[in-house]
Amino acid sequence: MTYPETYKYTKEHEWVRVEGDQATVGISDHAQHELGDIVFVDLPKPGTQVVKGQTFGSVESVKAVSDVYSPVSGNVLEANDLLSKTPERLNEDPHGDAWLIKVKLAPGSAEEISSLMSAADYQKYVGAE
Amino acid sequence: MSLTTDLKRTPLFDAHLASKARMVDFGGWNMPVQYSSILEEHNAVRTSVGLFDVSHMGEIDVIGPEAVQLVDYVATNHAAKLKIGQAHYSALLYPHGGIVDDILVHKVADDHIFICVNASNQEKDFEHIAAANRFRAKVEFTSDRYAQLAIQGPRAIDTLQKLTGTNLAEIKYYWFADGQISGIDARIARTGYTGEDGFEIYIPPSEAARIWDELLAAGAEFGIRPCGLGARNTLRLEAKMALYGHELTASITPLEADLAWIVKMDKGDFIGRAALEKQQHEGLKRKLVGFEMRSRGIARDGYEVIIEGHPAGWVTSGGPSPTLNKNIGLCYLPVEKARPGVSMQVMIRNVPVEAETVQTPFYKRPAAQRPVAPAKN
Fold first, then answer.
1. Mean pLDDT, to the nearest integer, of A107-126?
2. What is the CATH number of the domain that holds B18?
3. Which of B110, B173, B168 is nearest to B137 (CA)?
4. How many whole angstroms from its chain centre is CA B46?
5. B22: chain A residues, CB-CB within 8 Å
């Protein structure tokens, strides 16, 4: 699996893609693989505030539930409706169609994002884990 | 993820690593939780056949002229009613009525009872039985002598039959036969923990890896899959089979756990009997009941249950049911609420989510696939 180079990654295995003042957030291929068959995704409603490093939802596999942490601060614009009916898509396309939320970034979040890992760093991180 | 070296290993540890199984710490044992996908493994057992390494399970042999009497004194079911070659589900109790372990009791001979117990309870169980032994019987801790494999699913019989001369169709549900598998002495029991037809076999650890491979080859035409503890858990939950540490604990009695059917009060004295009699007399306060989620959300072990705005009980097991495509669970509720059709909420991360109590088992295999059951006594 290759990790998109335009994304940034967290130690908790989320990714973020920034376009202007908006960001798209998801979980990494490594994370979906570790979780196994994903059967339920719990996401916040539009308008909910998310804070970098704090949990904003959860992803459940057959076996367990895992919190997801926001890599950025801001307000939720959209939660991915695809995952409410077909959570298994998160196993199939974690870096693409199965994103979790879109966020309107809070002022000053550029700095937050630059502190995250690059694709190459993340690849090393999960390789060593 | 790290593999802790002091975890115990089954004889199939290397085979699991070679199959790229994901290994977890299960009660001190390094066990496969899944090979490919829990859902695929689950479905293989429901529709065809799956193979489980359950060598972590413990074995205790009770041998001697009063072996049956000892077992009847330490366990709740009536061992004296077993015929040679028959097995039953039973429980070891503390004097206060709480559960030491749930066990499978096999009558090998008039003077020999073979007991299969839970992995993480085996030392405790052995001590418990040995301490109660005032009978002409010897209690032997024999886990090291056995590897145990479970072959489960509607094609389990076709798979295992290829490796044995014992006519498996003649072994009734909850009976067993001592025969050979692939030229090796084996105990072949028509038992399981999945809700499907199937067999649990007890074989020498030294032969386990070879027989594992031969079973996978024998089942290849049916699409057999090696299955991990993840699928074992979703399968047993659908069949409403209890798991020690979840539905069953030292502070739960078998009457509360909906296991009155394995408690034979009229057989004479046994450890815990007086406490159960008192509980029967005073009336149960809580009881195990099944539920389905009515709103989006998955209940998990330990979550609180709310009824009419008040804390009412707790979830013992919960998760998705791959067969029914619903989210299901088991919980303890006040006895007057422990019946189907009661609205309840499960607290999922501080949010109450709608659920309703239902009939159990959640899943029962089609009658055509059921082996002949022994007559009810």
1. 90
2. 3.30.1360.120
3. B110
4. 17
5. 36
Q: What is the CA radius of gyration of chain A?
A: 13
| Inter-chain CB proximity A60 and B298 less than 8 Å | yes
Q: Residue B367 — very low, low, confident or very high, per pLDDT cuts 50/70/90?
A: confident
Name the residue range of residue B32's domain: 13-55+146-238
Q: Buried (b) or exposed (e) across B135-171, using 16+ Cβ within 10 A?
A: bebebebbbeebbbbbbbbbbbbbbbeebbebebeeb
Under DSSP, is residue B193 helix (H, G, I), strand (E, B) or coil? Answer: coil
Q: Are B74 and B86 contained in the same domain?
A: yes
**Domain annotation covers residue B192:** yes
| In-domain check, residue B201 | yes
The phi-psi region of residue B234 (left if phi > 0; otherwise alpha if psi is between -120 and 50; otherwise beta) is alpha
Distance from CA of A63 to the nearest CA of B (A): 6
Q: Which residues on neighbouring strands pair with residue A14, listed in sequence order?
A: A27
Global confidence as pTM: 0.91
User: What was the ipTM of the complex prediction?
Assistant: 0.78
Alpha carbon B330 to chain centroid, angstroms: 15
The residue segments making up the domain with residue A59 are 8-107
Please check whether residue A100 lies inside any domain of the structure: yes
Do residues B63 and B48 share a domain?
Answer: no
Beta pairing partners, B263: none
CB B319 within 8 A of CB B300: yes
* Per-residue pLDDT tens over the stretch B62-98: 999 999 999 999 999 999 999 999 999 999 999 999 9
Whichever domain contains A48, its CATH number is 2.40.50.100
Q: What is the pLDDT of residue B1?
A: 38
d(CA A8, CA A121): 9
Judge whether B124 lies within some domain. Answer: yes
Task: Read off the tokens for B202.
Answer: 């007890």
Residue B346's SS3 state is: strand
Answer yes or no: is B261 within a domain. no
Size of interface A-B (CB pairs under 8 A): 40
Q: Clarify whether residues B207 and B139 are in a common domain.
A: no
Q: Does B320 touch chain A (CB under 8 A)?
A: yes
Answer yes or no: do B113 and B133 share one domain.
yes
* Measured distance CA(B159)–CA(B230) in Å, rounded: 22
